[in-house]
Amino acid sequence: MNEPVLNIQDLSVSYQTERGPLQALRHVSLAVPEGKIIGIVGESGCGKSTLIASIIRLLAPNARIGTGAINFKGRDLLTLSPEAMRSLRGSGISMVFQDPMTSLNPVLTIGRQMADVQHRSRASRTEKRARALMMLERVGIPDSASQLRRYPHTLSGGMRQRVAIAMALMTEPSLLIADEPTTALDATLEVQIIHCLQQLQREFGCSILFISHHLGVIAELCDEVIVMYAGEVVESGTTREVFLEPRHPYTQKLLECDPARIRHRTRQLPVIEGSLPNLVELPRGCIFRGRCVQSIARCDTERPALSGGQHKSACHLLDTAS
Amino acid sequence: MLTFIVRRALTSVFILVLAVSLLFGMIHMVPGDPASVMLGPKATPEVRAELVRRMGLDRPVIVQLGKFYAGLARGDLGVDPFSGRAVTDSVLEQLPYTLVLVLAAIGGASLLGIPLGCFSAIRRNSLLDRLTGAMSVAFIAIPSFVVALYLLLWLAVKWRWFPAMGAGEVGDYPDQLRHLVLPAIALGLGWVGYIARLVRSSMLEVMEENHIRTARAFGLPERTIVVHYALRIAILPTVTILGLGIGSLLSGALFAEIVFSRPGIGRLLYEAVATRNYPVVMGAVLVTTGFFVLCTLVSDIVNALLDPRLRERPRN
Amino acid sequence: MATHPGVIVRTFSGLKKDPLGMTGFVLVSLILLFTVFAAWLAPYDPLEVDVYDRLSSPSAAHWLGTDQLGRDVLSRVLFGGQVALKVSLVAISASLSIGLVLGMMAGFGPRWLDRILVVSFDTVRSFPTIMFALAIIALTGPSLNTVIVVIILTSIPVYARVVRTQTQALRERDFILAERAMGASTLRILRDHVLPNIAAPLLILASMDVPSVVGMEAGLSFLGLGVSPPTPSWGSILNDGYSYLRNSPWPIIAGGLPLIAVTLGFTFFGESLRDIFDPKLRRKDQ
Lengths: 322, 316, 286
Hints:
The structure holds three protein chains of three kinds.
Chain A: E1 6-17, E2 20-32, E3 37-41, H1 48-56, E4 63-65, E5 69-72, E6 75-76, H2 82-88, E7 93-96, H3 100-103, H4 110-117, H5 125-138, H6 144-147, H7 157-170, E8 175-179, H8 187-204, E9 207-212, H9 215-221, E10 224-229, E11 232-238, H10 239-244, H11 249-257, H12 298-301, E12 312-313, H13 316-321
Parallel strand pairs in A: 3-9, 3-10, 7-8, 8-9
Antiparallel strand pairs in A: 1-2, 1-4, 1-5, 5-6, 10-11, 11-12
Chain B: H1 2-29, H2 34-39, H3 45-55, H4 61-74, H5 87-122, H6 127-141, H7 144-158, H8 173-207, H9 210-217, H10 222-234, H11 236-259, H12 265-274, H13 278-306
Helix pairs in contact in B: 1-13, 5-6, 5-8, 5-11, 5-13, 6-8, 7-8, 7-11, 8-10, 8-11, 11-12, 11-13, 12-13
Chain C: H1 4-17, H2 19-36, H3 38-41, H4 73-108, H5 111-126, H6 129-140, H7 144-171, H8 174-181, H9 186-222, H10 234-243, H11 250-277
Helix pairs in contact in C: 1-11, 2-4, 2-11, 4-5, 4-7, 4-9, 4-11, 5-7, 6-7, 7-9, 9-10, 9-11, 10-11
């Protein structure tokens, strides 16, 4: 088995706030195998943004990395110098962001921005331009030559996101991190972007870390999925396993409450009772305890570890059941 | 883009016409006729009549206005009744000095202010930042003519580092440069503060935006990000401010010209007002207004060029 | 608006944290003190001429020296402050009131009116003020009243714009629509809802306007277009000093100092006030 492209081991990150350290990520471990698409699912506040920021090391100034290692192709990113880290960004690791409207520089042309992304290449201007044109075509943007001269605000949302994907893949990264790339788009566009990503992934063979809270998209696109809640990984496994036989109560609830699953007419959308726990003053025991309907006494006192074979979950119920 | 330019140009012409007509109207609303005011009470009726005839004041106002516009189209602003020279000539002679002064002031202020603002933003709350901030406020607040007077007093008269009067020998560039320094500083000092503050706050805003995060995520060097991505956007308000500030620059130039006895439109206007020389007053005000309107027009266009988002119709 | 003790406490606690603001406040207080009590504080009559002691340097008898007619510069400076005070009070209250009305008209009235007013405001505001003033004075002759009128005309847009923005913002709010549905007249809405919200920003704006008003008066008096001699104004003191620059630097130094103090003081103080009470007032260039 090849070594995973990205291997996060026991990562903990906190933010210094006035009220004390906010534990945004706690003992997070995940692996992205080569050539696979891994999805991360979770509500806002689950730590997705912090996780991504930690990987590319663009955290806020008040962030503190505690324990852990982030191994990218064998090297621990956390031990790299800022310069070495910078050289990885946009070459070994690329990103596609959520909001294409604000993610692209409004006063520079698409062509200029696509050329700048190739700043490490020694190619000539014409060569860079040709490459940009080729990438635009591969993401399915017609009439690519004239698009290069345009400004981001003159393109539609879907086109902008395709441009962002083109930019990200232009340097042929080993890992592409997509942070909710379709959240800001409507359903039809979402489908198009997903298919585009699927196709490109097959062509380029890179690994993709795909973050979303849209379960349907994850199910469609990802090989494996990781469920996060309030800074911890609560379940992980292949998409099929996790979605068909969810083990963690949170995952179960998520799937129940997915609007796509509503079969009967109803007045109220199902929600998960309760709210996110206070990450400054962490409760003892399981992090999901406050909102779990199946909890037992042990859940109050002991934090469950992530266990299981291929299909892992962090829940005491599984110990007792098996 | 073209429609935008045409629209703005028409607004400018409209403002110009309005200003001129207003001024013309005001001159003719003055109690007594301009000729008497110019000559004063000692004038004899004959001299008065001669002047009235010479200035064409015996014709109806509409005709005078028409003649004025006709002359304007030809580039003729009338005749200075005291010296007999064409007003156009006097004005054109003085205008370059003012332009040079204004350009020197803005140029110097930008050269100093933009980097100061940029560094203040990057090193927020550092000593440099706080010092620049306090000094900016101070420079903006103090009236430029007071600065001019103090500069004249210390640097020119007392220490003789720079000349105190005039614009220097014609054709002798180093000399003219020396004569330009103090007036340009007096005029531009407030602007250094203005520009530094503006660039600082713009930069702080821009650096927080998502596209900067994207640029960083692609590993672009910090220098490229600051200068080509962030500053490019942060500078835009500066261009607007400069465009809007032409008016105050012209006013300030007037004071600088008077304090340092420099030739220029400001001084021409001032002296014409002192002698009630209406044709020259009209001519100078007209040229100044025209220049001012032109500058705001150019500034709007440059703005639209730099920021493609402004080219569409502004939504209300 | 908060009760008075609340406002004052807030102001002082805010000022304590801001050394520049505190300095501004001290300067403003001192200046107001000296100006208002000029008649008591001035050692001489500002118009009193003494031809034997012209253009002298500071001495025990004349703390700031004498000008070209032997008049005590210190006394002239103190009384010059009264001119500045008078001009500020008159000009600011007038332009604030007119600006208030125009701003409300622009904010609440029909679109076309708003368009016209906004274009006028922008044009007047960015026009070279001094040229404008000179042109008018060329016609009417120099006088302090003309200067005040010019200052009022060019200051109106400052207030009108802020009022307009505030009024427009409120216009769309739900409770205003509800009131209109209940038949409240425009005047009532303006008085009961817009006015209280405007009061604080306007007062802060006014205090920040003082430097430019005083500066304009001084500038025009310096050009000989403001006060008529022998009335002292900081600008006219500078004018006199300028003519006799090479004989004695003191009139210029003395005339410039109060201007610097006023402009710095009110600006620091005003900015501090604004940061305490209404940071939203920060224009984009700040």
